[in-house]
From TrEMBL:
SMART domains: Elp3. It comes from the Bacteria. SUPFAM superfamilies: Radical SAM enzymes. Residues 17-251 form the Radical SAM core domain. Belongs to the anaerobic coproporphyrinogen-III oxidase family. HemW subfamily. This is Heme chaperone HemW. InterPro entries: Coproporphyrinogen-III_oxidase, Elp3/MiaA/NifB-like_rSAM, HemW-like, rSAM, rSAM_horseshoe, rSAM_sf. It comes from Tractidigestivibacter montrealensis.
Length: 426
């Protein structure tokens, strides 16, 4: 164990495993006005006047009410309506937000994802009045030619204007930006970073573009990785983002996330990185439940089947399509992919996720994993410190940020048996 680590009690971390509720709720809205060139998310182009998005949103409301009746939302603190393009729902998005707030009154942060093209003044007013506290806006770039290459619907002027309107409307605003994209230069990236900072947003997320198989962009670039997306370019852009955003008053608190003040950090995403249970509804949405939470969900979803012997954590993904969900909003009609983790695998996963955070590995988590996994934890952490991935305080170093996949892989290997049990619900 690195000598500077004060070992905290692992009890609090262990108690998370017996929580019967969820701390965070995610709702997926899989509709977009058009498919972007690089997108492999669960999202489909829809046409104006299509009734499916509204029916789908109403079905999600019924599902939220159902999980609320199970008591699963009693301790829920955050919610995130993501997509896709939730703002494409128009006023129906306000109805969905209102339903979530009524079913989970303990929520202190509710984020809606938004795209500049569909973020009208009406939608802004409607979601704010319904209880939304935060908007995450898909700006991606403030350079028109780059936005064109990505097949985004908005231009830089529209993005600036809509972000300013959201900030002016009193909501917490985050901007998503993308680096290592076609036509991007160091100068244009600098202008994008400084441009969003000048709009007064409290939070910025920065991601290198991944060229995913099956997308229009992958078809266009072919087999060779283009120089604008090489691993060296990605690393250089991520380092530049850190330098520019820190100069503008932001602090990096996670590998891809920057906030001006600690209270502007995304509480919802932090749930994912700190082993807190969450429930995802909507096509493609993912959940992470404790054994007790899973058993409670089973009351409304008998198709899931009993929790397999010896499992501590359940990861679920809704595989029902958008038509199926819109046609029958009952939880019992959903099909899930299920993955089950032993306590050892769950502990390794928590270490892996915790290493994404600038504050590093929680002392309670380290103590808990030490009790559970023994000397192998000390050996791995010492090696990661020696190899320069982690500091003595078990926070990620610059090398740890840049070579995250190596770092996370080493921590996941602590699971011993990295093969997880999977099945599909009836
Ligand atoms: S707006 Fe987002 S989810 Fe929709 S197609 Fe573009 S990248 Fe995909």
């Amino acid at each position: 164990m690195p000598s500077s680590i004060a070992i905290g009690s692992g009890r609090a971390w262990r108690e998370r495993l017996s929580s019967a509720g969820i701390d965070a709720l995610y709702l997926h809205v899989p509709f977009c006005a058009r498919k972007c060139a690089y997108c492999d998310f669960a999202s489909w182009a829809t046409t104006r006047g299509d009734v499916l998005p509204r029916r789908y949103a109403e079905a999600l409301e019924r599902q939220v009410e159902q999980v609320s009746h199970l008591g699963l939302l009693d301790g829920c603190e955050t919610a995130y309506v993501g997509g896709g393009t939730p703002t494409l729902l128009g006023e129906a998005l306000g109805g969905l937000v209102r339903c979530v707030m009524e079913c989970a009154p303990g929520i202190r942060e509710l984020t809606c994802e938004a795209n500049p093209d569909s973020l009208s003044d009406n939608v802004l007013r409607e979601v704010a009045a319904a209880g939304c506290t935060r908007l995450s806006i898909g700006v991606q770039s403030l350079c028109d030619s780059e936005l064109g290459e990505l097949d985004r619907l908005h231009d830089a002027e529209r993005a600036r204007e809509r972000v300013a309107a959201a900030v002016g409307g009193g909501l917490d605003v985050s901007c998503d930006l993308m680096c290592a994209i076609p036509l991007q230069t160091s100068d244009s990236w600098q202008a994008t970073l400084e441009g969003v900072a000048s709009l007064g947003v409290g939070h910025v997320s920065v991601y290198p573009l991944q060229i995913e198989d099956g997308t229009a962009l992958a078809q266009k670039v072919g087999d060779e990785q283009p120089s604008w997306n090489s691993s060296d370019t990605q690393a250089a852009r991520m380092e530049q983002a850190q330098s520019v955003l820190e100069d503008c008053g932001y602090r990096r608190y996670e590998v891809a996330s920057y906030a001006r003040l600690p209270e502007k950090e995304c509480s919802h995403n932090k749930m994912y990185w700190t082993g807190r249970p969450y429930l995802g509804l909507g096509t493609g949405a993912a959940s992470m439940l404790t054994a007790e939470g899973y058993k409670r969900l089973l009351e409304a979803c008998p198709q899931l089947g009993p929790l397999p012997e010896g499992m501590t954590r359940a990861r679920l993904r809704v595989v029902s399509g958008r038509d199926q969900i819109a046609a029958n909003g009952r939880l019992s009609s959903l099909t899930f992919e299920e993955e089950f983790l032993t306590e050892r695998q769950a502990a390794a996963e928590d270490l892996m996720l915790g290493a994404r955070l600038a504050c590093g590995l929680d002392a309670g988590l380290v103590a808990y994993t030490h009790d559970l996994l023994g000397e192998s934890v000390d050996k791995t952490l010492n090696r990661l410190v020696r190899e320069g991935f982690l500091s003595d305080a078990l926070t990620p170093t610059q090398r740890g940020w840049l070579l995250g996949n190596e770092l996370y892989g080493e921590l996941w290997d602590l699971a011993g048996d990295t093969e997880t049990l999977t099945r599909r619900s009836a």
